[in-house]
Design a protein that fits this description.
Blueprint lengths: L4 H6 L29 H8 L8 E2 L9 E8 L3 H17 L3 E9 L7 H15 L4 E5 L3 E3 L13 E2 L3 E2 L15 E5 H6 L13 H11 L13 E4 L12 H6 L3 H4 L11 E7 L4 E6 L4
Parallel strand pairs: 2-3, 2-4, 3-11, 7-9
Antiparallel strand pairs: 1-3, 4-8, 5-9, 6-8, 10-11
The chain binds 6-aminohexyl-uridine-C1,5'-diphosphate (UDH).
6-aminohexyl-uridine-C1,5'-diphosphate (UDH) binds next to strand 2.
């Protein structure tokens, strides 16, 4: 029998115990407001001290239950991002996640493609670390209760259940936009998002259809806990409602095998590491 050399060279400290199922430092309802001006510099000082470069964190005293890549589709919303970072980092830390924040910035001013940015975030974050869970989150949604865990489960999970803008009422039983989580396996099973939803609308419904088509269902936390505040904003330039998208959601079954992670094409223009996040600027090849 050959001696286990790797043990001698790498094992310097005892492995940590798994983190408890219920994180002990959660506080429940949170005060969230977007009136305060928050510069990136200020947010770095306020919440950056426990983070590793690139917006990475892992709990110091236990082994996190999941490795979560938080993917944020982005263009020209820096004020929103500052608020989001200010509120999300402390929540994710209290939830004892081993996580990284990836802001996927669409370069140029072509038609916006939220879904394609999500697929790119999935691909690019996996190049850095063996994430097992992917939290896809709009930049303007901030949870107002930290018991809403950014953790994956047996089925794809929809977290943004009750949003202030919609009087805390879920718009539909099939809603899957805003903040949603899938394990690596679940995301691969549905071939990711479609890449062909340009402009606003439909890509979240198409993902929901993919999930059902592949024999899964979705889960949601209790609406009393899964509450969010949305940062107020108007419609962005180059992200107008695209009526073709609604039509396309009728054709998920036809497209799922050929349109998604297996047909993803893009060019990375720049990767920038801030202490609060990893910014990946990409050319999504808008039509
Ligand atoms: N996003 C950007 N930049 C853009 C467009 C979208 O960062 O130019 C991202 C951002 O993460 C945003 C997400 O894509 O949260 C979803 O886009 P959205 O916020 O435009 O979608 P939502 O449904 O709003 O929240 C639609 C426009 C509502 C206008 C209402 C005016 N009263």
């Amino acid at each position: 029998k050959t001696p286990d050399v790797s043990m001698e060279t790498t094992a310097t400290s005892e492995p940590l115990d798994p983190c408890p199922d219920t994180p002990p430092s959660l506080v429940g309802p949170l005060l969230v407001e977007f009136e305060t001006k928050r510069s990136l510099e200020l947010v770095r000082k306020q919440v950056g001290s426990l983070l590793q470069q690139g917006g990475r964190y892992r709990p110091p005293n236990c082994t996190a239950r999941q490795k979560v890549a938080v993917i944020v589709p982005f263009r020209n919303r820096s004020q929103h991002l500052n608020h989001w970072l200010y509120y999300l980092h402390p929540v994710l830390m209290r939830q004892q996640l081993d996580y990284g924040v990836y802001v996927i910035n669409q370069d140029g001013d072509g038609a916006f493609n939220r879904a394609k940015l999500m697929n790119i975030g999935f691909n690019e974050s996996l190049k850095e670390y063996d994430y097992d869970c992917f939290a896809f989150s709009d930049v303007d949604l901030v949870p107002i209760d930290d018991r809403n865990l950014y953790r994956c489960s047996d089925h794809p999970r929809h977290l943004s259940v009750a949003i202030d803008k919609f009087n805390y009422i879920l718009s539909s039983k099939t809603a899957f936009g805003g903040v949603s989580l899938l394990t690596q396996q679940q995301f691969l099973k549905v071939n990711g998002f479609s890449n062909t939803f340009w402009g606003w609308g439909g890509e979240d419904d198409d993902l929901y259809n993919r999930i059902i088509h592949r024999g899964m269902s979705i889960t949601r936390p209790d609406a009393q806990i899964a509450k969010y505040k949305m940062i107020k904003h108007g419609r962005d330039l180059h992200n107008e409602v695209n009526p073709e998208n609604a039509v396309k959601t009728q054709k998920t079954a036809e497209n799922i095998d050929t349109d998604g992670l297996n047909s993803l094409n893009f060019t990375v223009k720049e990767i920038m590491k801030d202490v609060l996040y990893t910014l990946i600027s990409v050319d999504v090849r808008s039509p």
